[in-house]
Amino acid sequence: xxxxxxxxxxxxxxYLARHPHEREQLGxxxxxxDRTGEDxxxxxTFTGHVTCSAIVVDQLGRVLHVLHLASGKVLAPGGHTEPTxxxxxxxxxxxxxxxxxxxxxxxxxxxxxxxxxxxxxxxDIDTHPGKGEPGHQHFDLRFLFRLHTSTExxxxxxxxxxxxxxWRPVDRVTSPALREKLLKLPLQVEPETANASALIHNxxxxxxxxxxxxxxxxxxxxxxxxxxxxxxEPQDATLEHTVRRELAEEAGLDLxxxxxxxxxHATDDAGATVPIAIFAGRWNGDPRELHLTEGVMLAWFAPSxxxxxxxxxxxxxxxxxxxxxxxATQSGPEPEEEERLASPHGTVPNIIGVHLNLERPxxxxxxxxxxPNSAFAPSTWHVLAGHCEQENAIACLIxxxxxxxxxxxxxxxxxxxxxxxxxxxxxxxxxxxxxxxARTWRGEPKLREPDxxxxxxFWDPAALPDDLVPYTRLAIAxxxxxxxxxxTGWPA
Length: 492
Prior knowledge:
492 residues; alpha+beta
């Protein structure tokens, strides 16, 4: 089936999360994505359409180029999409094979770039009267791969289009933008093993989660709810093969359609960041009928139930982001009014969030602009914040400051300055927001997680941005007046 508009949109959004400064230069592509009913995956859409290229790096750090017959240009192998392509990265792999004879199994997606292009280039294509094609533009998504074999790979050129190949050092890559990005990568270092997971959802808008065995120190995320998936093995030609093999091995599942959704970055026990390619698929079965070979159980959960689970924030955010773009197609029975709200006399969990009130000597306060795809407060300013995991609140604050902004804070320099007990919509769980001040810190705010925050900026408390999280605005005002406690959102 043709590549979906949502798959292209998600891929471009993930790219812009890493390169927000390129939004303006990609404006024509974003405009094309905004036009409804226009298939920009089709080569017959002459207002502009998508192509994909394979950026292949060999063991010596050289980059593959091909000499195209028609244009006489030296470029990376690539070309148009076909109806049989199941992902944008697969387009690049198919074109690589067709133009050079290098098979997909001979290359590995660069970790962190399994579903996100290294570069997006927009260029003009001249009129081609012989083919009846007017002048148009190509939106070229360039995916990064590494040649993972040290033996010679036989090259079989597509003689109608390609007259030769050349392995060029990075400083001689033909595209300046691509060359700049490649020069920032450690091309001589062997990349780590990639992982892939499946984001499985049903027509009711629920998500299939896997309760892992509680074997601390032996397995990843012990005792937590997670996605099915695992690490790539030598026999896996692509990461889609990885996730399909893992689904079959762990649960006996074979899904017809799996679509690349994005890349999650998780942290292992040693503190290393591990990229996980996420593939989304729909399934409406009963998990109790599956043959589970690993873990404790499989179960469906609605996004609104995730706060009750022991689940990684990255996984929870991933589910909510997908749910926001893919509303349920089959609604269940509407709960009775008495079921919507917890009894005022009952015991319910309260989520604990920590917040950093970072003030410069001039009194300005640090705020971050949240990513448009954020499940909470998209495109809105907010203080640096996070949820407590299996840790105390100050340890959480110190960790979040380092992970999100590269700030070094010591425990003895932290003081509690305000508490907000707040609740959003009636069905949302109550939250306790702890606001801490750092008397001193080391470093300047950096964009460490561009998929969550697009910008850090210090603001005058008397001139805060209009699009600021309401309870954050309240807390800043209370901190300025020296008040320790406030509450908001509770019914009168």
